[in-house]
Amino acid sequence: MIVKLPKQPDKIFENEYLFNYILELERMQKLETLSLNIMVYYVLRMFSDEINNGGLMQYFTNTSKQTYPFLRHCGGYLNHFAFSPFIAKVCDYFDLIDITTLEGDVDQAIFNQAERFDNEYYKLDERCDFEKVLTDFYKANYSIEKIDIPKIKEPESKTCRYFTVSTVCKDAQEAAESYLKVLADFSEQRWTIELWNYFDTYRIIATTYGKAVDLDMVLQNWDNQNFSFCGNHNTSYFQRMKLSSYFGTINIVSGTDGISQYQMSISPSGFVKNEKKIKHHFLISGTQYDQEFSRISLGNLSHKKDGVKYDIFKSYLEEHYKEYPNIETVFES
Questions:
Q1: How confident is the model over 95-123, as pLDDT tens digits?
Q2: CA 58 from centroid of its chain's CA atoms
Q3: What is the pLDDT of residue 17?
Q4: pLDDT given at position 83
Q5: Which has the closest alpha carbon to 245: 323, 165, 171, 186?
Q6: Can you tell me the distance from the alpha carbon of 239 to that of 217, in angstroms, rounded to the nearest whole number?
Q7: For residue 259, which of 278, 224, 232, 287 has the smallest C-alpha distance?
Q8: Nearest in space to 71 (alpha carbons), one of 55, 52, 91
Q9: How far apart are CA 11 and CA 4, in angstroms?
């Protein structure tokens, strides 16, 4: 597939196929096949992110250490008066150590030296802003606008799974019914449903305040035939499958700490018919809220292409939402 390379380097992590391709090259130790600006930005960004989050010892004990064979060269390519000598000094020290052993109980001398490197980095970063240096390098060396890459499937992990839809739904009214039943299954939440309109686009969004939906529980049990969120034996599994088959993407967002939001997305995997990818990931931080909330969103849909469906959704939801005690209202916006 042809992928357009972003002009802003942090967008690399938002392009699923490009990011999966980079991870595969990292696993194969072939990051040098990337364009120079992407390789340098990615390798050094992994290095700096780990130091900022947990120090050099975190860098060497996480999968990020797979970028270490490229670290010295990328530091040299960066050619920065402060950071390049610092990176070379780090490599001079750790090249003499078997980094595969840096797990569990680490020699105290190594740990102490790592902390000294951490403190030196923090001072350099405060003075020179490493992220800005990396961004400037990326933009100054932006030479390739598009690349042809293989389409790589993200490996399953604690935050990513795949499942096959077992019950296919093609009827709008049936999909609306399934939506109400899925919301009803989240019985600890009280929902308001919004038919959200913006020019030609519309979404169906259910929102609850007071108690958020547990996204980890959703991730593990969305395709579990024997699981219902309310704890009762019911048809909730089949309703979830119908909903998954009818709508291209389902997004469930939850906020619990007053400032951060996390999202679980259910979308076509793009590899196998009726296969869905379900992924839990960080969404945004910085927007404050005073109580837990969750939002289940279906769409985006088009009035021009799906106008009849909108009328069906609206009519069915308005007529039947009162049948479910934890659904309070339906309104248009």
A1: 999 888 887 778 899 999 999 999 999 99
A2: 21
A3: 87
A4: 97
A5: 165
A6: 17
A7: 287
A8: 91
A9: 11
Angle between helices 71-78 and 130-140 (to 10 degrees): 80
Residue written as token pair 């939002």:
295
Tokens of 293: 């909330």
> pTM of the entire structure?
0.74
| pLDDT under 50: residue ranges of the chain | none
> Amino acid identity of 231?
G
pLDDT of residue 82: 97
Task: Give the number of other Cβ atoms within 10 Å of residue 65's Cβ.
Answer: 20
One-letter-per-residue 3-state SS of the chain: CEEECCCCHHHHHHCHHHHHHHHHHHHCCCHHHCCHHHHHHHHHHHHHHHHHHHCHHHHHHCHHHHHHHHHHHHHHHHCCCCHHHHHHHHHHHHCCCCHHHCCCCCCHHHHHHHHHHHHHHHHHHHHHCHHHHHHHHHHHCCCCCEEECCCCCCCCCCCEEEEECCCCCCCHHHHHHHHHHHHHHCCCCCEEEEEEEECCEEEEEEEEECCCCCHHHHHHHCCCCCCCCCCCCCCHHHHHHHHHHHCCCEEEEEECCCCEEEEEEEEECCCCCCEEEEEEEEEEECCCCCCCEEEEEEEEEEHHHHHHHHHHHHHHHHHHHHHCCCEEEEEEC
In degrees and rounded to multiples of 5, residue 46 shows phi and psi of -60, -45
Quote the Cα angle for 250-307-206, to 5°.
Answer: 35
The whole-number pLDDT of residue 318 equals: 97
The pair of structure tokens assigned to 74 is 């990328």
